[in-house]
Amino acid sequence: MTDNVRIMVVDDDPIIRETLSLNLEDQDFEVEGLPSGEALLEHLRGGATADLILLDWKMGQFSGLDTLREMRRMGGDIPVIFLTSLTDQIYEEAALATGALDFVDKSRSFSILLHRVRTVLAGRRTPKEAEPAGDMATENGPAGTARIGQLTLDPDVGRAYWCDRLVPLTLTEFQIVHALAASAGRDMRYRDIYDLVHGDGFHAGAAGDGYRANVRGFIKRIRRKFEDMDPAFSEIENYPGFGYRWRALRNGEGSSA
């Protein structure tokens, strides 16, 4: 995946920019560092391109969000992952609504960021491989779009809709929802959900089952985002001691458009 993959790292902190660039280069990515959103936009206007941009949120007078808005106004569609120390959900929702594919806390380890980078690149390079699975049926809409009950999923762009309204999920949260909904009515283990987030066999914590708390945190955030849109949302069910399931369809609910 890393052959000839070009990543731009945009951050006004030279230490963070250099450290992140070196770590990515160690993974065989081609990396270019830029000190500001203005520098990135000038670079793109000059014809530069990349497979992915890692964009800092807080940068001088011109924020990462301002930068992304201008990129999209210019017509650019390079995927963007925001890097930030702002953990409030309002910032995450603003980033996703503006067109970012993910939102990663700078305090997370490089291995977490690397997994997110590879996930975005995999979806970018092979979008047609992200087809609906299990009992999910394809809609008569955009290729790959699938619907189960009131949930609509578009794997090509990592977007989920509840009652036809966009749910502000990060790409990782989308992966979890997609995996659960694709097997609606069937239980999914904590470990299997964790491996979606961190990669198969990722170290799960000193106690051997630290992944459970990690998964619970993800599910709590996902539920909250759906409940903010629909207080009656109850599709994600817990199987105590085992994992979670997406509620099976009730009589009269369809799995197609």
What percent strand? 15-25%
Strand order of the largest sheet: 2-1-3-4-5
Low-confidence stretches: 125-143
CATH C-level of the largest domain: Alpha Beta
- Provide the CATH topology of the largest domain: Rossmann fold
CATH superfamily of the largest domain: Response regulator
Mean pLDDT, as a whole number? 80
Question: Using only CA atoms, what is the Rg?
Answer: 19 Å
Give the CA-CA distance, first to last residue.
Answer: 34 Å
Overall helicity? 25-40%
**Which word captures the global form?**
globular
| Class from helix and strand fractions | alpha/beta
How many beta-strand segments? 13
- What is the architecture of the largest domain at the second tier of CATH? 3-Layer(aba) Sandwich
How many discrete structural domains?
2
What is the overall number of helices? 8
Note the run of SSEs as H and E: EHEHEHEHEHEEEEEHEHHEE
